[in-house]
Write a structure and sequence with these properties.
Elements: H1 6-18, H2 22-30, E1 36-37, H3 38-45, H4 49-61, E2 65-70, E3 73-78, H5 81-95
Antiparallel strand pairs: 1-3, 2-3
Amino acid sequence: MKKTTENTLYDVAELFKNFADSTRIRILHCLFENERSVNEIADLLNMNQSAISHQLRILKNSKLVKNRREGKTIYYSLDDDHVYNIICQGIEHVEE
């Protein structure tokens, strides 16, 4: 196994802090199948757009989601397959 630096371990801890919020997990789960706008996510989770936008900003800063603009609408999606796999493994672990 490759030697892991203290900085890397710190970054991993910071990454997992982002998964400690149930709203963020719900948002990530909403993005499993397709990209969605803030409005779509808010409707699916029955939350206000401001709360969703705040959480998306955190997820984006943590490189867990990415976005693209189409006209005035911004669409969010999972940043990469690693995010999907982490959530799936968490669900699998909890359901065992």
